[in-house]
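Morning!

As promised:
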Amino acid sequence: MQRLIVWVAVTIPTIASGSSPPYFVDIAAEAGVVAPTWCGRDDKPHILESNGTGLGLVDYDADGDLDLYLVNGWRLDGAEIAERGRDVLYRNEGQGRFLDVTEKSGLGSDAWGSGLATGDANGDGLIDLFVTNFGTDVLYLNRGDGTFEEHPDSPNLEGWSAGAVFFDSDGDGDEDLYVGGYIECTLEEVLTEKPSLVWEGLDVMLGPFGLEGLGNKYFRNEGGGRFEEATEEAGLEDVGLFYTFGILAADLDGDLDLDIYAANDSNPNYLYSNDGGVFQEVGLWSGAALDEGGAAQAGMGLAAGDVESDGLVDLLVTNFQQDMSTLYRNLGDMIFEDVTRSVQLGGPTFSMLSWGTTLSDLDQDGDLDIFVANGHIYPQADLVADKVGGGFRQANLLLVDQGGTLIDVSSDAGPGLAVKEVSHGLAVGDIDFDGDLDLAISNVDEPPTLLRNDTRQPGSYLLVDAPLALRVEAVHGDDRWIRHRVIGGSFLSVNDPRFHFGFGEKRRLESLTLIWPDGFRRRLLDVPVSHALKIER
Amino acid sequence: MNRNLKLSLVLGVVVLMAMPSVAQKTPSSMVAAYDSLATIILSVPQAEEDLVRAMLDGHYRGAKALMKQGRYDEAAAEMALFANEGDNAIAGIRKRLVEGGHHHNAAGEEQGIYEEGYVLVTREAKKEMLASSTAMRQAKDDVAREAAWKEFAAFAEETLAE
């Protein structure tokens, strides 16, 4: 295969002398991103209505910019369906504008949507979309002309499916699919449900306890976009029928294949270790299934990243209100340690009910920061907001890493962080070609929030587009930054697939090394920063 | 049709077939059948306890062996599995049992001694053994490792002996 390195200088801004705290502005309305994403009735009597929906930043038309896909649910009125919300595709028109191209693209499903996964399902080099639904999941194949067609025999969980990831599990060059299931329920149950659980003295929705979990499934890609279910064969059984929400794939043990981590609501999380396409569930053994006290948490969203640049992927899980989000430090050999307290993540996350999240360098000072999308599941929380620490609508959270300690800078991070919604989905990517990471957030029963990163003095950066590479390592003197391929994660959402680095005041790198799953390495020397870089093997 | 329903129907048919038309003393064969069933019912909790004890014994022996090999992080993971009374597959079964109404230590759960569905490991033992597991992972030298192991082993042996 011809090895080709393409350097693409997308922007060459003035290199900052340092970095300042992140600053975000909500541009959704002015950008034309105005479609609300529905989720049931106002009073949310059924747990399905607490789910929210995912979204994705996806360059579906391969024109080099990130477009936006919104998964949509339904609006209910009593026991009636008031509106079947349609998924929406917005094309990035540049200049901060997005255009609704749903009709033109052949998309716009009116199923009750849940989440999104993207990948090349049929090996034609184009990005396909897999939408998980409450009902039948749908794989949309990209025709390459800006339009999509439904796969005639789509992989499907049938029921309330949640997170999903496309990933090459067995190294055969095609992308397999793992789909998480939440609970078993029917539309009739949703439509006729009444609040039947007492929480803080209030009648609220029931669940997930007492409801039956829907099993996760794995679909092996047999080539050409033909999928066969092979959950048991691959060792990816949902051994506890736990309530799965977020799922991510990343190389957690450094053996150059992709492992699976799944956030389970109110149950221990799963960690499936991959050994040549055969998986073993090692969640409890690894230490990444429970919190430090041995308690199962209400896992919602996930993020992964190399917090200490030690070459090991650490894991972040968001949880329920009056519980902390949890950061698991990777000790190597699939052993994890809950370091939530020592990095001071507990306090800022305790009063929020948290969903989509990311470990990204939002101020480009060289270390990974944390953004968390928040919102309650009970509208009734407004009645006891003072007591429990937050109501139905909650502000999102931004924590920056300062010398290994997380500092809450939300109140200083611009008007974008003052927005209070019931935020669930979160997708991260550079939507405006300025090299920093912007945030797209889905809100229950409201249009999304689109947070443009207007950090005044961001550090220098590098955006590396290297399809299928597993890891990228940047070196300058004694400093080392490592970014890992992380597929999926957040909450039912899809991030910009490029590797993003911040370097603070650095102007050049001594080297940049890319590593692919077969061990192939490519090393570039004396690399200028503040560029977008495309590297093809 | 679930297994319980099937069993109830079969037993019901047996009872009806054996029931004489006039009420009188219960036939001895029926008494014997019920007696056998009672033995089975009463032995189930003991069988569950034996099974969980065997599983925990496996984790204890595993942890011991890994300690001897100097694989301390993995030993700590086995210690955590002991504290959690098994892995996620076992947790899934425990969840199914609890949702089906089976609580091995119902009274102990009400008193806060056991977590839901736990058979042998008490809340206190779990907390202490998880702390030992964490201490093992964080131990910088053999002295610290030995202390963590001793603490864990005391609780583990007490749990296995009960």
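The two ends of chain B are 38 Å apart (CA to CA).

Hope this helps with the figure draft.
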